[in-house]
Amino acid sequence: MAILRGLPPADTVALAARAWDLGIGVVEVPARDPRGMEALRATVRAGAERGVPVGAGTVVGLRQVREVGACGAAFTVAPGFDPEVMAASQEAGMPHLPGVASPTEVQGVMRAGGRWVKAFPASVLGPDWIRALHGPFPDLRVVATGGVDGRNARTFLDAGADVVAVGSALGDPDQIPLLSGL
């Protein structure tokens, strides 16, 4: 999964195209401000031309759920778990990926009907946290996000993450070969 944060729309679309060309099928564009919303709209259009979904990131409020839905976002992502945001996103037809950093948050997500979580920040939680989390939650699906790049992505996948999310690594030519090998 690629996270394309804080870039002008044209740069966001160019990096999304790089991600898609590398075989990264899911792109998230954080939409926390007008510039992010503009980048989201442009990337959703580019994704539609390729038949790939584009989601909205850093979705933390109900109004924002409506706004990103109007932009055509296929899913929403949040840094934390808010049951109201999750419910609103799902009611709008957009699966929601809430961020978690504790088993209590995981239980809340699962109680609300979720099976996917964003382990955030993954670089702080570490691969061992993800491995341990699967003990009590064997059916949980995990996206490792935050501090993941081409150098450590394999470690998170080997620990049980189903998906790794990368951001700035897509703009680093030295990491492109590392990412294409995943």
From TrEMBL:
Top-level taxon in the UniProt lineage: Bacteria
Keywords from the UniProt entry: Carbohydrate metabolism, Lyase
Pathway: Carbohydrate acid metabolism
Gene3D superfamilies associated with the record: Aldolase class I (3.20.20.70)
Similarity-based family: Belongs to the KHG/KDPG aldolase family.
Self-association and partners: Homotrimer.
Protein name per UniProt: Bifunctional 4-hydroxy-2-oxoglutarate aldolase/2-dehydro-3-deoxy-phosphogluconate aldolase
